[in-house]
Amino acid sequence: MNMARRTMWMFLLASAALTGGSGEASQLLYVTSADSLVYTYDVSLGSAAAIKASENALIGNFHNTDPTSVALNLAGTIYVGNQESQAGTGNSTVSIYSSDGTYQTSWTTPGNVGGLAIDASGNVFLSLYNVTTDSSRIEKRNASGTVLQTITGASLTKASGLARTAAGTLYAGNFLPAFADNAVATFDAAGNELPSFGNGALAGPVALDSANNVYVGYVVEDVVRKYTSSGTLLADISTTGPRGIAIDGFGNMYVGNQAPTGSVDHTISKFDPSGNFLFSWDFAGTSTPNGMAFAPVAVPEPSTCASLLAGLACAGYSLFRRRKRA
Question: Is 19 exposed, middle or buried (0-12, 13-18, 19+ CB in 10 A)?
């Protein structure tokens, strides 16, 4: 194998390790429900009927009250954000479970937990809204639940869904009054407020794809809007009362839909990476599918990637020097 080919092979191998590769894309979808359960679906089964048949109530209602969000760390630990008080005046919890659904512990925090995100180090980010004080914040906690950082900003007015890039940028949806713009608050890795964006009201769930495009569900407008990472609108994707969004490793989008007024038929819909509707299946019981997430694929933080790539560059240079001397 010549030097150029060897170096390229090493780079491609490292790239596959960094991205996880499409073959490692998570296929188990976790969905929180207003009936205080957390369900899983195996979306690799391909058809609506098969996915529906895989429905599993993984987590019971003993430690959840109106769960709003779910996230998993790299070890498979499951975090469920709960809305303890519909009015937002009481203490809410984050309930923590092992990968098999066994309860571990809970954290208590004032206000409603709207969204969860977890970084590669296992730190957990919570978006919170407190009705009593009419205030919102994002908390960063370590794996033991200790608050490491509190983030606030003028554009964070009624925090709901939350998503985080590998580089640390945070996107928080806001349940704003009727049809106010700039419904997505944005913060950099240090917690500094960036320009907000959005064009609609009641921005609930937020999700990211592998290119860091931002998907925002607007509940009363029956649409998911896709934006670039800087907030340029790319597409409007029609659905019904989107309460949860998750993007799989292949770029497909799954949306938890609130049943239309007068109906009890809640659904989960699948869309392809271009936003084309593929199919829906009935969600369990008469509950609303709220938070949604896939288990993450191991992708190092940017500093780790830089170190690994620098190491490969050094290795390639060293091989080149040895070959030249020979």
Answer: middle
Whether 178 and 158 have beta carbons less than 8 Å apart is answered as no
Choose among 158, 155, 176, 153: nearest CA to 111.
Answer: 158
Give me the sheet containing 267-271, strands edge to edge. 242-247, 253-257, 267-271, 277-282
pTM higher than 0.85 for the full model? no
Query: How many Å apart are CA 115 and CA 245, to the nearest integer?
Result: 11
Q: Domain coordinates of the chain in residue numbers?
A: 25-295
Amino acid 20: pLDDT: 32
User: Does residue 156 contact residue 129 with C-beta atoms inside 8 Å?
Assistant: no
The per-residue pLDDT for 118 is 97
Q: The tokens of 30 are what?
A: 């976790």
Give the angle 266-270-272 at the CA atoms, nearest 5°. 160
Q: Does domain 25-295 have CATH number 2.40.10.350?
A: no
pLDDT < 70 regions, the chain = 1-26, 84-90, 177-181, 262, 285-286, 298-326
pLDDT for position 316: 36
pLDDT value of position 288? 86
The rounded distance, in Å, linking the Cα atoms of 208 and 147 is 25
pLDDT at 26: 59
- Would you say 287 and 33 are in contact if contact means Cβ atoms under 8 Å apart? yes
Q: Is 169 exposed, middle or buried (0-12, 13-18, 19+ CB in 10 A)?
A: middle
CA distances from 185 to 88, 195, 325 (A): 20, 7, 56
Cβ contact 140:93 at 8 Å: no
Check: CB of residue 109 under 8 Å from CB of residue 130: no
Looking at residue 181, what is its pLDDT?
67
103-110, strands of its sheet edge to edge: 67-72, 78-82, 91-97, 103-110
